[in-house]
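The pair is quoted verbatim as follows:
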Amino acid sequence: MSQLLEHALTVFMAFFAIMNPIANTTVFAGLTGSMGKAKQMKVAIKSLTITFIIIVLFSILGKSIFHLFGITLPALRITGGILVFLVGYHMLQGKSSKLHTAEESDDADIAVSPLAVPLLAGPGTIATAMNYSSAGGWSEIIITVAAFAVLCLITFVCFIFSSKIISAIGESGLSIVTRLMGLILAVIGMQMLIGGVTEVMSSLTSA
């Protein structure tokens, strides 16, 4: 039971670091600042619902996607590790990674783009979900989905109280949080990369 709890905390922290609800709250506030509270809530619910559905699909269909395209788990861990490390590295520099950046869009529905994709459900988030859910059976999938569901609820609360959070933290506080999350992400990405390389090396040795 302790191992499952430890795994759940690891998955949650990985998702928390890569989605960075505090930093994304500033983006949400910037995109929806001119909207009323009711409209902001509608946008928040829609964007997080779409994000959750995307992550659930990739978590459940991860192994099927592997078989369909002939992808191995070590390959995912190496690629995903590099992606997650790059996001973390850019955050350590106090910058937003291009993999998870909300850019101006002509699409009127900002809940879909840029909020849901690529800001919340970007390549790094998807790679993290597939890495943790594909490593085992249904228990890992359930833990991954449950951890992400909790994070979506936390993000929703942050979005709804975005103005109060931003005024309380300030720019310096936001910079500290972003860099701290970047450090955690860089370490997680490197661990994923090391795990993938180790599996490849062990398979070559035993072959």
